[in-house]
Amino acid sequence: MTALRKLCETDAALISGMHRICFKENWNESAMSTLLGLPGVYGFLSATAPPDEVPQGFVMARVAADEAEILTLLVLPPFRGSGVGRSLLAAAAADAVGQEASKLFLEVAANNTSAIALYTAVGFIQQGRRPRYYKSGVDALLMSLALRGDFLDQ
Fold it and tell me: Could you check whether the bond before residue 77 is cis, i.e. omega within 30 degrees of 0?
C-alpha cells in the first residue's frame, strides 16, 4: 500500500538523496531546501504505508499565475512500473487545478522513454525540444497538459 504526503523543507536531505539515485545531474540538499521554500512550490512524497514508510518517489512542482510546472518527478528503481509515478503526477496536477492553474508543463530527457510513455498516456503533448540541453548532450522535450477537473479519472 502506498501513501502520499505533502513535502516540506525538512524533507530536503531525503529527497536530494533520492534525486542523486535517479539522476546524474542531481540537486543537492541546499537546492531542494531553497526550492521548497519558494512561493508557489509544492510537492508530494510517495512512501509505503506505516509502519515501514519506505520512500518510493516524489514530485516537486510550482504554480505561477495560471500555469504550473513539474520541477522534478522521480520513482526509485524498485518501485518503477507500479503506478507511483502516475499517482504523484495526478497529485501534482490536482493541486495545480486547486490553485487555478489551467496548464501543466514539464521537460524530460528525450531518452527517458518510460517517463515519456507515462506523460503521453495521461495526455501531455510535446511542445518543443531543447537540443543538447543536458550535460550528457541529450535533448530535452518540452511537454504540456491542459488541466481539467477529471485528470484523476483517466
Answer: no
